[in-house]
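Appendix B. Extra example for self-study. Work through it before the problem class; the solution is given directly after the inputs so you can check yourself.
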Amino acid sequence: MGQIQLNQVTKSFGDTQVIPPLDLTIHDGEFTVFVGPSGCGKSTLLRLIAGLEDITSGHIDIDGTDATDVVPAKRGLAMVFQSYALYPHMSVRKNIAFPLRMAKMDQAEINKRVEGAASVLNLTDYLDRRPGQLSGGQRQRVAIGRAIVREPAAFLFDEPLSNLDAALRVGMRLEISEMHKRLETTMVYVTHDQVEAMTMADKIVVLHAGVIEQVGTPLELYRTPRNTFVAGFIGSPKMNLITGEEAAKHDAHTIGVRPEHIDVVESGGQWRGTVGVAEHLGSDTFFHIHNTGLAEMVTVRAIGDVSLKHGDTIHLTPRADEIHRFDAQGLRIA
Amino acid sequence: MATKASRSAARIMMAPAVVLLLGWMLVPLILTLWFSFTKYLPLRGDSIDRGLEWVGFANYGRFLSSNSFWPSVQTTLIMVGGVLLITVVLGILLAMLLDQPLWGQGVVRILIIAPFFVMPTVSALVWKNMILDPVNGIFAHLWRFFGADPVAWLQDASLSSVIMIVSWQWLPFATLILLTAIQSLDSEQLEAAEMDGAPPLKRFWFVVLPHLGRAITIVILIQTIFLLSIFAEIFVTTGGAFGTRTLTYLIFQRVIDSQNIGLGSAGGVYAIILANIVAIFLMRIVGKNLDA
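Solution. C-alpha coordinates for the complete assembly:
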Protein backbone atom coordinates (compact mmCIF):
# COMPACT_ATOMS: atom_id res chain seq x y z
CA MET A 1 0.00 0.00 0.00
CA GLY A 2 1.16 3.50 -0.61
CA GLN A 3 -1.49 6.05 -1.25
CA ILE A 4 -0.54 9.63 -0.51
CA GLN A 5 -3.13 12.37 -0.29
CA LEU A 6 -2.44 16.07 0.11
CA ASN A 7 -5.35 18.22 1.30
CA GLN A 8 -5.10 21.99 1.11
CA VAL A 9 -1.40 21.79 1.88
CA THR A 10 0.46 25.10 2.06
CA LYS A 11 4.03 26.00 2.88
CA SER A 12 5.44 29.38 3.79
CA PHE A 13 9.00 30.36 4.60
CA GLY A 14 8.55 33.44 6.76
CA ASP A 15 6.21 35.73 4.84
CA THR A 16 6.72 34.13 1.46
CA GLN A 17 4.24 31.48 0.53
CA VAL A 18 6.03 29.01 -1.70
CA ILE A 19 3.13 26.60 -1.98
CA PRO A 20 -0.41 28.00 -2.04
CA PRO A 21 -3.22 25.60 -1.04
CA LEU A 22 -2.67 22.42 -3.00
CA ASP A 23 -4.65 19.20 -3.40
CA LEU A 24 -3.17 16.08 -4.89
CA THR A 25 -3.76 12.36 -4.71
CA ILE A 26 -1.03 9.87 -5.54
CA HIS A 27 -2.55 6.42 -5.96
CA ASP A 28 -1.05 3.18 -4.76
CA GLY A 29 1.59 1.79 -7.12
CA GLU A 30 1.68 4.87 -9.28
CA PHE A 31 4.88 6.40 -10.64
CA THR A 32 4.25 10.10 -10.19
CA VAL A 33 6.70 12.70 -11.45
CA PHE A 34 6.79 16.30 -10.21
CA VAL A 35 8.25 18.38 -12.97
CA GLY A 36 8.81 22.10 -13.35
CA PRO A 37 11.49 24.72 -13.76
CA SER A 38 13.93 25.31 -10.89
CA GLY A 39 12.34 27.14 -7.98
CA CYS A 40 8.83 25.93 -8.74
CA GLY A 41 8.48 24.21 -5.35
CA LYS A 42 8.69 20.62 -6.55
CA SER A 43 11.50 19.66 -4.16
CA THR A 44 9.76 21.47 -1.31
CA LEU A 45 6.61 19.50 -2.02
CA LEU A 46 8.57 16.25 -1.89
CA ARG A 47 10.19 17.26 1.38
CA LEU A 48 6.76 18.06 2.79
CA ILE A 49 5.62 14.56 1.90
CA ALA A 50 8.80 13.10 3.41
CA GLY A 51 8.31 15.12 6.58
CA LEU A 52 11.68 16.86 6.34
CA GLU A 53 9.78 20.16 6.25
CA ASP A 54 6.72 20.96 8.33
CA ILE A 55 3.64 21.98 6.39
CA THR A 56 2.19 25.36 7.28
CA SER A 57 -1.44 24.33 6.99
CA GLY A 58 -3.51 21.50 5.55
CA HIS A 59 -2.85 17.82 6.06
CA ILE A 60 -1.18 14.83 4.48
CA ASP A 61 -2.72 11.37 4.57
CA ILE A 62 -0.64 8.30 3.89
CA ASP A 63 -2.69 5.13 3.36
CA GLY A 64 -5.76 6.82 4.74
CA THR A 65 -4.26 7.86 8.09
CA ASP A 66 -3.26 11.42 8.90
CA ALA A 67 0.53 11.65 8.75
CA THR A 68 0.83 15.42 9.08
CA ASP A 69 2.53 15.28 12.49
CA VAL A 70 4.24 11.93 12.09
CA VAL A 71 8.07 12.04 12.14
CA PRO A 72 9.81 11.20 8.84
CA ALA A 73 11.07 7.82 9.97
CA LYS A 74 7.58 6.64 10.91
CA ARG A 75 5.90 7.57 7.64
CA GLY A 76 7.09 4.42 5.93
CA LEU A 77 8.65 6.37 3.09
CA ALA A 78 12.19 6.01 1.75
CA MET A 79 14.02 8.81 0.01
CA VAL A 80 16.83 8.91 -2.51
CA PHE A 81 18.66 12.23 -2.40
CA GLN A 82 20.23 14.27 -5.17
CA SER A 83 23.70 13.99 -3.61
CA TYR A 84 22.92 10.32 -2.72
CA ALA A 85 23.72 11.25 0.91
CA LEU A 86 25.63 8.03 1.53
CA TYR A 87 27.51 7.75 4.82
CA PRO A 88 31.12 8.11 3.62
CA HIS A 89 32.78 6.32 6.55
CA MET A 90 30.63 3.20 6.27
CA SER A 91 31.04 0.36 3.79
CA VAL A 92 28.34 -0.19 1.18
CA ARG A 93 27.03 -3.07 3.28
CA LYS A 94 26.70 -0.87 6.37
CA ASN A 95 25.13 1.93 4.37
CA ILE A 96 22.42 -0.35 3.07
CA ALA A 97 21.96 -2.00 6.47
CA PHE A 98 21.75 1.31 8.34
CA PRO A 99 17.94 1.79 8.28
CA LEU A 100 17.46 -1.84 9.34
CA ARG A 101 19.96 -1.44 12.16
CA MET A 102 18.09 1.65 13.31
CA ALA A 103 14.89 -0.40 13.26
CA LYS A 104 16.69 -2.90 15.54
CA MET A 105 16.10 -5.74 13.12
CA ASP A 106 17.54 -9.19 13.69
CA GLN A 107 21.10 -9.46 12.28
CA ALA A 108 20.32 -12.55 10.17
CA GLU A 109 17.35 -10.77 8.60
CA ILE A 110 19.50 -7.69 7.96
CA ASN A 111 22.12 -9.78 6.17
CA LYS A 112 19.47 -11.51 4.09
CA ARG A 113 17.89 -8.25 2.98
CA VAL A 114 21.20 -6.53 2.26
CA GLU A 115 22.43 -9.47 0.17
CA GLY A 116 19.09 -9.52 -1.65
CA ALA A 117 19.17 -5.83 -2.47
CA ALA A 118 22.83 -6.04 -3.49
CA SER A 119 22.22 -8.85 -5.94
CA VAL A 120 19.24 -7.04 -7.49
CA LEU A 121 21.33 -3.89 -7.92
CA ASN A 122 24.55 -5.64 -9.05
CA LEU A 123 26.40 -4.43 -5.97
CA THR A 124 27.45 -7.79 -4.54
CA ASP A 125 31.11 -7.30 -5.51
CA TYR A 126 31.22 -3.86 -3.94
CA LEU A 127 29.65 -4.56 -0.56
CA ASP A 128 32.86 -4.04 1.38
CA ARG A 129 33.96 -0.88 -0.38
CA ARG A 130 33.45 2.65 0.83
CA PRO A 131 31.19 5.02 -1.17
CA GLY A 132 34.28 7.08 -2.06
CA GLN A 133 35.63 4.15 -4.06
CA LEU A 134 32.53 3.81 -6.24
CA SER A 135 31.50 5.49 -9.48
CA GLY A 136 28.53 7.86 -9.66
CA GLY A 137 26.18 5.19 -11.00
CA GLN A 138 27.20 2.71 -8.32
CA ARG A 139 26.68 5.29 -5.57
CA GLN A 140 23.24 5.92 -7.00
CA ARG A 141 22.49 2.22 -6.79
CA VAL A 142 23.68 2.08 -3.18
CA ALA A 143 21.32 4.95 -2.36
CA ILE A 144 18.48 3.05 -4.02
CA GLY A 145 19.52 -0.10 -2.18
CA ARG A 146 19.31 1.71 1.14
CA ALA A 147 15.78 2.71 0.20
CA ILE A 148 14.69 -0.73 -1.04
CA VAL A 149 15.69 -2.75 2.03
CA ARG A 150 13.22 -0.84 4.17
CA GLU A 151 10.37 -2.12 1.98
CA PRO A 152 8.70 1.29 2.19
CA ALA A 153 5.14 2.19 1.28
CA ALA A 154 6.52 4.66 -1.23
CA PHE A 155 9.85 5.80 -2.65
CA LEU A 156 10.67 9.48 -2.93
CA PHE A 157 13.33 10.51 -5.46
CA ASP A 158 14.76 14.03 -5.38
CA GLU A 159 16.40 14.66 -8.77
CA PRO A 160 18.39 11.45 -8.41
CA LEU A 161 19.94 11.48 -11.88
CA SER A 162 21.10 15.07 -12.11
CA ASN A 163 24.64 14.27 -10.98
CA LEU A 164 25.19 11.56 -13.59
CA ASP A 165 26.53 11.95 -17.11
CA ALA A 166 24.12 11.72 -20.05
CA ALA A 167 24.79 8.08 -20.97
CA LEU A 168 24.53 6.85 -17.37
CA ARG A 169 21.37 8.86 -16.87
CA VAL A 170 19.58 7.02 -19.67
CA GLY A 171 20.70 3.72 -18.19
CA MET A 172 19.60 4.56 -14.63
CA ARG A 173 16.29 5.86 -15.97
CA LEU A 174 15.60 2.44 -17.41
CA GLU A 175 16.71 0.69 -14.22
CA ILE A 176 14.42 2.79 -12.05
CA SER A 177 11.50 2.22 -14.43
CA GLU A 178 12.14 -1.51 -14.40
CA MET A 179 12.40 -1.49 -10.63
CA HIS A 180 9.01 0.18 -10.48
CA LYS A 181 7.47 -2.42 -12.75
CA ARG A 182 8.92 -5.19 -10.60
CA LEU A 183 8.16 -3.79 -7.14
CA GLU A 184 4.88 -2.08 -8.05
CA THR A 185 5.48 0.33 -5.18
CA THR A 186 4.34 3.94 -5.27
CA MET A 187 7.12 6.23 -6.44
CA VAL A 188 7.25 10.00 -6.33
CA TYR A 189 9.99 11.43 -8.49
CA VAL A 190 11.13 15.04 -8.74
CA THR A 191 12.94 16.29 -11.81
CA HIS A 192 13.37 19.42 -13.89
CA ASP A 193 13.99 17.31 -16.98
CA GLN A 194 10.79 16.83 -18.95
CA VAL A 195 12.36 13.92 -20.86
CA GLU A 196 12.74 11.99 -17.59
CA ALA A 197 9.16 12.90 -16.72
CA MET A 198 7.77 11.78 -20.08
CA THR A 199 9.69 8.50 -20.22
CA MET A 200 9.18 7.30 -16.64
CA ALA A 201 5.90 8.62 -15.35
CA ASP A 202 2.48 7.07 -15.04
CA LYS A 203 1.32 10.48 -13.97
CA ILE A 204 3.02 13.83 -14.39
CA VAL A 205 2.37 16.79 -12.11
CA VAL A 206 3.52 20.01 -13.75
CA LEU A 207 4.34 22.67 -11.16
CA HIS A 208 4.94 26.35 -11.67
CA ALA A 209 5.52 28.77 -8.79
CA GLY A 210 4.07 26.30 -6.31
CA VAL A 211 0.87 25.87 -8.27
CA ILE A 212 -0.12 22.66 -10.04
CA GLU A 213 -0.58 23.62 -13.68
CA GLN A 214 -1.77 20.23 -14.87
CA VAL A 215 -1.90 16.61 -13.78
CA GLY A 216 -2.13 13.82 -16.30
CA THR A 217 -0.45 10.96 -18.11
CA PRO A 218 2.53 11.92 -20.28
CA LEU A 219 0.49 11.66 -23.48
CA GLU A 220 -2.44 13.64 -22.10
CA LEU A 221 -0.05 16.46 -21.30
CA TYR A 222 1.55 16.16 -24.71
CA ARG A 223 -1.74 16.08 -26.62
CA THR A 224 -3.88 18.44 -24.60
CA PRO A 225 -1.80 20.87 -22.57
CA ARG A 226 -4.16 22.87 -20.37
CA ASN A 227 -2.30 26.14 -20.82
CA THR A 228 0.66 27.74 -22.58
CA PHE A 229 3.01 26.97 -19.67
CA VAL A 230 2.45 23.22 -19.90
CA ALA A 231 2.46 23.44 -23.69
CA GLY A 232 5.87 25.09 -23.67
CA PHE A 233 7.31 22.89 -20.91
CA ILE A 234 6.35 19.43 -22.16
CA GLY A 235 7.88 18.26 -25.43
CA SER A 236 11.33 18.66 -26.90
CA PRO A 237 12.16 20.80 -28.77
CA LYS A 238 9.70 23.28 -27.30
CA MET A 239 6.31 23.91 -28.88
CA ASN A 240 6.19 27.00 -31.08
CA LEU A 241 3.85 29.50 -29.46
CA ILE A 242 2.76 32.06 -31.97
CA THR A 243 0.81 35.21 -31.20
CA GLY A 244 -0.47 38.08 -33.30
CA GLU A 245 -2.08 37.94 -36.72
CA GLU A 246 -1.42 34.26 -37.36
CA ALA A 247 -3.14 33.37 -34.07
CA ALA A 248 -6.06 35.66 -34.84
CA LYS A 249 -6.71 33.65 -38.00
CA HIS A 250 -7.56 30.73 -35.69
CA ASP A 251 -9.70 32.88 -33.35
CA ALA A 252 -7.13 32.60 -30.58
CA HIS A 253 -4.71 34.81 -28.69
CA THR A 254 -1.91 32.29 -29.01
CA ILE A 255 -1.57 29.21 -31.11
CA GLY A 256 0.86 26.40 -30.47
CA VAL A 257 2.38 24.01 -32.99
CA ARG A 258 4.94 21.41 -32.05
CA PRO A 259 8.10 21.34 -34.20
CA GLU A 260 7.30 17.76 -35.21
CA HIS A 261 3.87 18.84 -36.51
CA ILE A 262 5.22 21.23 -39.11
CA ASP A 263 5.99 19.72 -42.51
CA VAL A 264 8.86 20.92 -44.65
CA VAL A 265 7.55 21.16 -48.24
CA GLU A 266 9.28 21.81 -51.56
CA SER A 267 7.35 24.99 -52.33
CA GLY A 268 4.15 26.83 -51.67
CA GLY A 269 3.95 26.19 -47.96
CA GLN A 270 1.87 28.24 -45.59
CA TRP A 271 4.98 29.88 -44.09
CA ARG A 272 8.26 30.75 -45.76
CA GLY A 273 11.50 31.72 -44.03
CA THR A 274 15.28 31.41 -43.87
CA VAL A 275 17.11 28.73 -41.97
CA GLY A 276 19.12 30.06 -39.04
CA VAL A 277 20.77 27.24 -37.14
CA ALA A 278 20.32 23.67 -38.32
CA GLU A 279 20.96 20.96 -35.73
CA HIS A 280 21.65 17.63 -37.43
CA LEU A 281 21.09 14.69 -35.11
CA GLY A 282 21.12 12.10 -37.87
CA SER A 283 17.74 10.60 -37.04
CA ASP A 284 16.17 14.02 -37.37
CA THR A 285 17.11 17.62 -37.95
CA PHE A 286 16.01 20.69 -36.00
CA PHE A 287 15.75 23.95 -37.95
CA HIS A 288 15.48 27.34 -36.32
CA ILE A 289 13.78 29.57 -38.84
CA HIS A 290 13.77 33.35 -39.05
CA ASN A 291 12.03 35.93 -41.26
CA THR A 292 8.78 34.03 -41.51
CA GLY A 293 6.70 37.14 -41.03
CA LEU A 294 5.54 35.67 -37.70
CA ALA A 295 6.29 37.45 -34.45
CA GLU A 296 8.29 34.50 -33.06
CA MET A 297 11.12 32.34 -34.31
CA VAL A 298 9.89 28.94 -35.44
CA THR A 299 11.50 25.60 -34.68
CA VAL A 300 10.88 22.68 -37.01
CA ARG A 301 11.76 19.04 -36.69
CA ALA A 302 12.32 17.20 -39.94
CA ILE A 303 12.66 13.42 -40.03
CA GLY A 304 16.01 12.18 -41.25
CA ASP A 305 18.94 14.25 -42.38
CA VAL A 306 17.45 17.02 -44.50
CA SER A 307 20.20 18.85 -46.34
CA LEU A 308 19.15 22.43 -45.84
CA LYS A 309 21.74 24.70 -44.33
CA HIS A 310 22.18 28.15 -42.87
CA GLY A 311 20.65 30.89 -45.03
CA ASP A 312 18.55 28.59 -47.24
CA THR A 313 14.91 29.40 -47.87
CA ILE A 314 12.48 26.90 -46.39
CA HIS A 315 8.74 26.35 -46.98
CA LEU A 316 6.61 25.11 -44.09
CA THR A 317 3.08 23.87 -43.54
CA PRO A 318 1.73 23.30 -40.02
CA ARG A 319 -0.70 20.38 -39.73
CA ALA A 320 -4.10 21.95 -39.26
CA ASP A 321 -5.42 19.30 -36.86
CA GLU A 322 -2.37 19.60 -34.59
CA ILE A 323 -2.73 23.30 -33.82
CA HIS A 324 -3.40 24.12 -30.14
CA ARG A 325 -5.36 27.28 -29.42
CA PHE A 326 -5.04 29.38 -26.25
CA ASP A 327 -6.91 32.45 -25.04
CA ALA A 328 -5.49 35.70 -23.67
CA GLN A 329 -5.06 34.11 -20.19
CA GLY A 330 -3.05 31.34 -21.77
CA LEU A 331 -5.79 28.75 -21.17
CA ARG A 332 -6.61 26.14 -23.75
CA ILE A 333 -9.59 26.75 -26.00
CA ALA A 334 -11.31 23.43 -26.53
CA MET B 1 58.89 25.22 -16.29
CA ALA B 2 61.34 23.20 -14.27
CA THR B 3 64.36 23.23 -16.52
CA LYS B 4 67.73 22.04 -15.27
CA ALA B 5 68.96 25.60 -14.93
CA SER B 6 65.92 26.81 -13.01
CA ARG B 7 66.11 23.86 -10.65
CA SER B 8 69.72 24.48 -9.71
CA ALA B 9 69.00 28.19 -9.40
CA ALA B 10 66.13 27.34 -7.06
CA ARG B 11 68.44 25.17 -4.97
CA ILE B 12 71.00 27.93 -4.64
CA MET B 13 68.37 30.45 -3.65
CA MET B 14 66.77 28.16 -1.11
CA ALA B 15 70.12 27.19 0.40
CA PRO B 16 70.50 30.12 2.85
CA ALA B 17 67.06 29.50 4.34
CA VAL B 18 67.63 25.77 4.61
CA VAL B 19 71.06 26.24 6.20
CA LEU B 20 69.66 28.78 8.65
CA LEU B 21 66.77 26.51 9.64
CA LEU B 22 69.05 23.51 10.02
CA GLY B 23 71.43 25.55 12.16
CA TRP B 24 68.55 26.85 14.22
CA MET B 25 67.49 23.31 14.99
CA LEU B 26 70.77 21.46 15.08
CA VAL B 27 72.94 23.84 17.12
CA PRO B 28 70.72 23.87 20.24
CA LEU B 29 70.11 20.15 19.90
CA ILE B 30 73.82 19.34 19.69
CA LEU B 31 74.66 21.75 22.51
CA THR B 32 71.99 20.19 24.70
CA LEU B 33 73.32 16.73 23.95
CA TRP B 34 76.87 17.86 24.71
CA PHE B 35 75.98 19.60 27.98
CA SER B 36 73.98 16.60 29.11
CA PHE B 37 77.16 14.53 29.19
CA THR B 38 79.21 17.10 31.15
CA LYS B 39 79.38 18.59 34.62
CA TYR B 40 78.33 22.18 33.98
CA LEU B 41 77.67 24.28 37.10
CA PRO B 42 78.29 27.97 36.19
CA LEU B 43 78.18 29.11 39.83
CA ARG B 44 81.03 26.75 40.68
CA GLY B 45 83.15 28.24 37.92
CA ASP B 46 82.48 25.72 35.11
CA SER B 47 82.52 27.32 31.66
CA ILE B 48 82.94 26.30 28.05
CA ASP B 49 86.18 28.29 27.74
CA ARG B 50 87.89 26.36 30.47
CA GLY B 51 86.57 23.08 29.15
CA LEU B 52 83.80 20.99 30.70
CA GLU B 53 84.39 17.77 32.55
CA TRP B 54 82.96 14.75 30.71
CA VAL B 55 80.83 12.70 33.11
CA GLY B 56 79.20 10.18 30.76
CA PHE B 57 75.66 9.18 31.70
CA ALA B 58 75.89 10.49 35.28
CA ASN B 59 73.44 13.36 34.67
CA TYR B 60 70.95 10.98 33.05
CA GLY B 61 71.16 8.65 36.01
CA ARG B 62 70.71 11.50 38.49
CA PHE B 63 67.79 13.03 36.65
CA LEU B 64 66.02 9.69 36.39
CA SER B 65 66.66 8.66 40.01
CA SER B 66 65.50 12.01 41.36
CA ASN B 67 62.31 11.87 43.43
CA SER B 68 60.70 14.49 41.21
CA PHE B 69 61.15 12.78 37.85
CA TRP B 70 58.35 10.21 37.68
CA PRO B 71 55.78 12.47 39.38
CA SER B 72 56.61 15.16 36.83
CA VAL B 73 56.08 12.79 33.90
CA GLN B 74 52.80 11.74 35.45
CA THR B 75 51.75 15.36 35.97
CA THR B 76 52.63 16.19 32.36
CA LEU B 77 50.53 13.32 31.01
CA ILE B 78 47.57 14.09 33.28
CA MET B 79 47.68 17.74 32.31
CA VAL B 80 47.91 17.10 28.56
CA GLY B 81 45.27 14.36 28.70
CA GLY B 82 42.92 16.43 30.84
CA VAL B 83 43.13 19.48 28.65
CA LEU B 84 42.67 17.39 25.49
CA LEU B 85 39.61 15.66 26.92
CA ILE B 86 37.98 18.89 28.08
CA THR B 87 38.71 20.88 24.93
CA VAL B 88 37.62 18.14 22.51
CA VAL B 89 34.38 17.29 24.32
CA LEU B 90 33.37 20.87 25.05
CA GLY B 91 34.68 21.93 21.64
CA ILE B 92 32.33 19.52 19.87
CA LEU B 93 29.36 20.67 21.96
CA LEU B 94 30.15 24.35 21.44
CA ALA B 95 30.74 23.87 17.73
CA MET B 96 27.34 22.21 17.36
CA LEU B 97 25.73 25.01 19.34
CA LEU B 98 27.41 27.69 17.22
CA ASP B 99 26.35 25.88 14.05
CA GLN B 100 22.69 26.49 14.94
CA PRO B 101 21.17 29.61 13.42
CA LEU B 102 21.13 32.02 16.33
CA TRP B 103 20.73 35.71 16.82
CA GLY B 104 24.00 37.69 16.82
CA GLN B 105 25.98 34.72 15.54
CA GLY B 106 28.93 36.81 14.34
CA VAL B 107 29.43 38.53 17.68
CA VAL B 108 29.06 35.29 19.61
CA ARG B 109 31.69 33.62 17.45
CA ILE B 110 34.20 36.42 18.03
CA LEU B 111 33.53 36.28 21.79
CA ILE B 112 34.14 32.54 21.73
CA ILE B 113 37.47 32.97 19.96
CA ALA B 114 38.63 35.79 22.25
CA PRO B 115 40.46 33.72 24.94
CA PHE B 116 42.83 32.45 22.30
CA PHE B 117 44.14 35.97 21.73
CA VAL B 118 45.02 36.50 25.40
CA MET B 119 48.67 35.84 26.22
CA PRO B 120 49.19 32.80 28.49
CA THR B 121 50.89 34.88 31.20
CA VAL B 122 48.04 37.40 31.23
CA SER B 123 45.28 34.83 31.27
CA ALA B 124 46.99 32.93 34.07
CA LEU B 125 47.25 36.16 36.10
CA VAL B 126 43.61 37.00 35.46
CA TRP B 127 42.53 33.55 36.54
CA LYS B 128 44.78 33.60 39.60
CA ASN B 129 43.77 37.01 40.92
CA MET B 130 40.26 37.56 39.63
CA ILE B 131 38.66 34.17 39.49
CA LEU B 132 40.47 31.66 41.70
CA ASP B 133 41.66 33.93 44.54
CA PRO B 134 40.31 32.42 47.79
CA VAL B 135 39.45 35.85 49.26
CA ASN B 136 38.47 38.14 46.44
CA GLY B 137 38.02 35.77 43.49
CA ILE B 138 34.71 35.42 41.68
CA PHE B 139 34.52 31.77 42.66
CA ALA B 140 35.10 32.66 46.31
CA HIS B 141 32.22 35.14 46.20
CA LEU B 142 30.05 32.59 44.47
CA TRP B 143 30.86 29.95 47.07
CA ARG B 144 30.15 32.36 49.92
CA PHE B 145 26.89 33.42 48.25
CA PHE B 146 25.72 29.84 48.53
CA GLY B 147 27.04 29.63 52.08
CA ALA B 148 30.00 27.37 51.29
CA ASP B 149 33.60 27.82 52.35
CA PRO B 150 35.69 29.23 49.49
CA VAL B 151 38.15 26.78 47.99
CA ALA B 152 41.81 27.68 47.89
CA TRP B 153 41.95 26.52 44.30
CA LEU B 154 45.65 26.84 43.57
CA GLN B 155 46.59 24.97 46.75
CA ASP B 156 43.92 22.36 47.22
CA ALA B 157 43.01 21.67 43.59
CA SER B 158 46.13 22.99 41.94
CA LEU B 159 46.48 20.57 39.05
CA SER B 160 42.76 20.80 38.22
CA SER B 161 43.01 24.60 38.35
CA VAL B 162 45.89 24.68 35.90
CA ILE B 163 44.06 22.25 33.62
CA MET B 164 41.02 24.52 33.81
CA ILE B 165 43.05 27.62 32.87
CA VAL B 166 44.81 25.92 29.98
CA SER B 167 41.54 24.39 28.75
CA TRP B 168 39.96 27.82 28.77
CA GLN B 169 42.74 29.04 26.52
CA TRP B 170 42.65 26.17 24.09
CA LEU B 171 38.90 25.63 23.88
CA PRO B 172 38.50 28.38 21.23
CA PHE B 173 41.05 26.69 19.01
CA ALA B 174 39.28 23.34 19.24
CA THR B 175 35.86 24.93 18.79
CA LEU B 176 36.93 26.86 15.72
CA ILE B 177 38.43 23.86 13.92
CA LEU B 178 35.49 21.62 14.83
CA LEU B 179 32.99 24.30 13.80
CA THR B 180 34.43 24.53 10.30
CA ALA B 181 34.31 20.75 10.11
CA ILE B 182 30.67 20.64 11.20
CA GLN B 183 29.76 23.30 8.67
CA SER B 184 31.18 21.18 5.88
CA LEU B 185 28.81 18.30 6.72
CA ASP B 186 26.30 17.67 3.94
CA SER B 187 22.86 18.34 5.44
CA GLU B 188 21.37 15.70 3.14
CA GLN B 189 23.32 13.08 5.09
CA LEU B 190 21.60 14.11 8.29
CA GLU B 191 18.24 14.12 6.54
CA ALA B 192 18.93 10.69 5.09
CA ALA B 193 19.73 9.43 8.58
CA GLU B 194 16.52 11.00 9.85
CA MET B 195 14.53 9.24 7.12
CA ASP B 196 16.37 6.01 7.98
CA GLY B 197 14.95 6.24 11.49
CA ALA B 198 17.98 7.44 13.44
CA PRO B 199 17.04 9.57 16.49
CA PRO B 200 19.17 12.69 17.21
CA LEU B 201 21.72 10.96 19.42
CA LYS B 202 22.30 8.23 16.87
CA ARG B 203 22.55 10.81 14.08
CA PHE B 204 25.30 12.42 16.13
CA TRP B 205 27.05 9.13 16.78
CA PHE B 206 26.82 7.64 13.28
CA VAL B 207 26.99 10.72 11.05
CA VAL B 208 28.35 13.82 12.81
CA LEU B 209 31.08 12.22 14.92
CA PRO B 210 32.68 10.17 12.10
CA HIS B 211 32.58 13.27 9.95
CA LEU B 212 34.50 15.13 12.67
CA GLY B 213 37.11 12.36 13.00
CA ARG B 214 39.75 14.08 10.96
CA ALA B 215 39.24 17.48 12.59
CA ILE B 216 39.47 15.89 16.06
CA THR B 217 42.72 14.22 15.04
CA ILE B 218 44.16 17.55 13.97
CA VAL B 219 43.04 19.25 17.18
CA ILE B 220 44.61 16.51 19.30
CA LEU B 221 47.91 16.48 17.42
CA ILE B 222 48.41 20.25 17.34
CA GLN B 223 47.33 20.76 20.95
CA THR B 224 49.58 17.97 22.21
CA ILE B 225 52.61 19.64 20.65
CA PHE B 226 51.86 22.89 22.46
CA LEU B 227 50.55 21.43 25.70
CA LEU B 228 53.69 19.36 26.35
CA SER B 229 55.62 22.61 26.71
CA ILE B 230 53.13 24.49 28.93
CA PHE B 231 55.12 26.80 31.16
CA ALA B 232 53.77 30.32 31.78
CA GLU B 233 50.51 29.13 33.35
CA ILE B 234 52.40 27.05 35.93
CA PHE B 235 55.06 29.68 36.58
CA VAL B 236 52.48 32.40 37.24
CA THR B 237 49.99 30.40 39.30
CA THR B 238 51.72 27.82 41.48
CA GLY B 239 55.39 28.08 40.57
CA GLY B 240 55.49 24.32 40.24
CA ALA B 241 54.28 23.67 43.78
CA PHE B 242 51.35 21.51 44.90
CA GLY B 243 51.86 18.79 42.33
CA THR B 244 51.88 20.94 39.23
CA ARG B 245 55.52 20.36 38.33
CA THR B 246 55.56 19.06 34.79
CA LEU B 247 58.65 17.76 33.03
CA THR B 248 59.13 21.11 31.31
CA TYR B 249 58.93 22.89 34.64
CA LEU B 250 61.33 20.45 36.30
CA ILE B 251 63.92 21.10 33.60
CA PHE B 252 63.45 24.84 34.13
CA GLN B 253 64.08 24.42 37.87
CA ARG B 254 67.18 22.30 37.33
CA VAL B 255 68.74 24.78 34.92
CA ILE B 256 67.68 28.13 36.42
CA ASP B 257 66.99 27.52 40.12
CA SER B 258 69.75 24.97 40.74
CA GLN B 259 72.03 26.37 38.03
CA ASN B 260 72.85 22.83 36.94
CA ILE B 261 72.99 23.01 33.16
CA GLY B 262 74.28 19.48 32.67
CA LEU B 263 71.45 17.94 34.68
CA GLY B 264 68.83 20.16 33.00
CA SER B 265 70.11 19.22 29.57
CA ALA B 266 69.77 15.54 30.39
CA GLY B 267 66.18 16.30 31.39
CA GLY B 268 65.70 18.07 28.06
CA VAL B 269 66.78 14.93 26.21
CA TYR B 270 64.27 12.90 28.24
CA ALA B 271 61.59 15.44 27.30
CA ILE B 272 62.42 14.95 23.63
CA ILE B 273 62.10 11.20 24.07
CA LEU B 274 58.80 11.57 25.94
CA ALA B 275 57.41 13.89 23.25
CA ASN B 276 58.34 11.35 20.59
CA ILE B 277 56.76 8.48 22.50
CA VAL B 278 53.54 10.46 22.88
CA ALA B 279 53.66 11.47 19.21
CA ILE B 280 54.10 7.91 17.97
CA PHE B 281 51.39 6.73 20.34
CA LEU B 282 48.98 9.41 19.09
CA MET B 283 49.82 8.81 15.45
CA ARG B 284 49.02 5.14 15.86
CA ILE B 285 45.68 5.77 17.55
CA VAL B 286 44.40 8.64 15.49
CA GLY B 287 46.78 8.88 12.54
CA LYS B 288 44.77 6.44 10.46
CA ASN B 289 42.02 9.05 10.35
CA LEU B 290 44.31 11.23 8.26
CA ASP B 291 44.70 8.66 5.49
CA ALA B 292 41.13 8.35 4.28
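Self-check: The first helix of chain B runs from residue 4 to 36. If your reasoning did not lead you there, revisit section 3.
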